[in-house]
Specification:
214 residues; mainly alpha; 10 helices; globular
Amino acid sequence: MPSWTTYLLFIGFALAASFTPGPAVMLSIHNAMNLGWRHALWSSLGNITGLLVLATLSALGLNAILQSSELAFTVVKVAGAAYLIWLGVQQWRNASRRGASARVEAPRRPEPAQMPHRLYVKGLTVALTNPKAIAFIAALFPQFLNVARPLGPQYAALTLTFMAISLLALSTYAGVAVLARKRLNGWFASGWPQRVSGSVFCAFGLGLLRLSRP
């Protein structure tokens, strides 16, 4: 375990990183608006599972591979960008099929692609195909490790803390989205929020293509 001063500093960085809007936040908001808070929780759980995987791979040296191999970095980058753009296109398509009579009090019944296990996989995939997340974890965690102490327990403590804070952030955004939907029922029934979030996903994907190796 790092010193308490170091640990509290890490928490501050983790809070800032987790509450900064990104693809995971947009996915949580989208699911909360369309399916409710509980369904948004599944994609959030998938996302923090992805963070656990990334932290483990980072500890095993994945970031070194991405930094040394242009091909590996490009494959991860293109896969992540393609997936985010695909999510954006799907949201646009779903928005065009929405009925004008959608109700806030009873979110529409999830389609097969929106069942809990599918939402979990979406959140997991968003995390695993984001080279920014890989680079962030690999660059942030070592700064808070005390090399004079066993590294395994320290890495585990930082990883679990980051996962908990990320889940808190995603759940908070989902809760706010649900409250906003209740006040703006007509606008949400029009399908435009889905088009907006779909456009944001596409923008994230295109922005990812411009990312260079750290």
